Amino acid sequence: MPAKLLDLGESENLIVVSDVHMRTPDDERSRIFCRFLDRVGRDVACDTLVLLGDIFDFFNARQVFYYRLWKDVLAQIRVLNERGVRVVFVEGNHDYGFEHSPCKYVKDCFYDCGDVILRTKHPAVGEVVLLHSDDVVCPPSYRTFRSLVKSRTFQSVLSPIPGAVTSSLFSRYAKISRAKDDYRPLDSAFLTVCAEQFITRLRDIHSLRPDVCVFGHIHVDLDDCLQNVRFLSGPAWFSRPSFLRLSEQGTVVREWLDSSSVQSDKFKFARR
């Protein structure tokens, strides 16, 4: 898991979005996401918006190309500051360089960002931990690869390559990888073991005993309890656009943005 823990203090109206996987500024997911951003802090009460990874299909925050490509979306995120919404960006396995970016624009867009675990205290729900979870729900061999590509050294080597080239290469790789998902569905028993190990490591490394954990990355509609911890996650936007809302009244609701999207069953941990 990421070594860095970011404590956000208290959040009364917390909204979480993950796995949008916007490919181009004018694709349907991007349009839905921008309409959603326009509601945040207006008709959707929010003091903290967490973008929990893989918001873009690929974004290298150390290259100017991506800021130009996504300038309209980033401008909308910056406006949220004026509405009193702090926006935190957690890197996913498709988002790179935010933590190590020298670009001042990153600091203007986000309250904070990087490859981090988030912690916040909700007055009604309790202690909430949020992370992308690609290095939690994965085989051990992936963690070595991840630590390499997330390193400052690797991203420095990647930076001189033209952004149009990295965008084309990595977006193509993401498309190929996603096409295999039908042949490698998430196994309930595997997720259960990963979550149990995560709870143990979270307590051993960060001394945290959360009431709620929010995962990105796994692309399933999860709301289940394990070892007295409530785990929440949602499907990717290419199946069902949605956001998770933890209100000041203590309600925890996943709100769907597209009623015509494919319905999904609740994912459950394996019962042992």
Write down the overall geometry: globular
Into which percent range does the helicity of residues fall? Answer: 25-40%
Helix tally equals 8
N-to-C SSE string, H for helix and E for strand: EEHEEHHEEHEEEHHHHEEEEE
Reported for the largest beta sheet, the result is: 6 strands, mixed
What Rg is obtained from the alpha carbons, in whole angstroms? 18 Å
Distance between the termini: 25 Å
User: How many β strands by DSSP?
Assistant: 14
Q: Can you give the mean pLDDT?
A: 90
What class do helices, strands and sheet pairing give? alpha/beta
β content, as a range?
15-25%
As residue ranges, the low-confidence spans are none
Major beta sheet, strand line-up: 1-8-9-10-12-11
Features:
272 residues, alpha/beta, six-stranded mixed beta sheet, 8 helices, 14 strands
Give a description of the structure.
The chain is of the alpha/beta class and 272 residues long. It has 8 helices and 14 strands. It has helices at residues 28-39, 64-69, 71-82, 104-109, 140-149, 152-158, 163-179, 188-206, and strands spanning 4-10, 14-17, 48-51, 59-60, 86-90, 95-96, 112-114, 116-122, 126-131, 212-215, 222-226, 229-233, 242-246, 252-256. A 6-stranded mixed beta sheet has the order 1-8-9-10-12-11, with helices on one face. A 6-stranded mixed beta sheet has the order 7-5-3-2-13-14. Helix 1 (28-39) links the parallel strand 2 (14-17) and strand 3. Helix 1 (28-39) packs parallel to helix 3. The mean pLDDT is 90.
Short description:
By secondary structure, the chain is α/β, with parallel strands linked by helices. The chain has helices at 28-39, 64-69, 71-82, 104-109, 140-149, 152-158, 163-179, 188-206; strands at 4-10, 14-17, 48-51, 59-60, 86-90, 95-96, 112-114, 116-122, 126-131, 212-215, 222-226, 229-233, 242-246, 252-256. A 6-stranded mixed β-sheet has the order 1-8-9-10-12-11, covered by helices on one side. Strands 7-5-3-2-13-14 form a 6-stranded mixed β-sheet. A two-stranded parallel ribbon has the order 4-6.
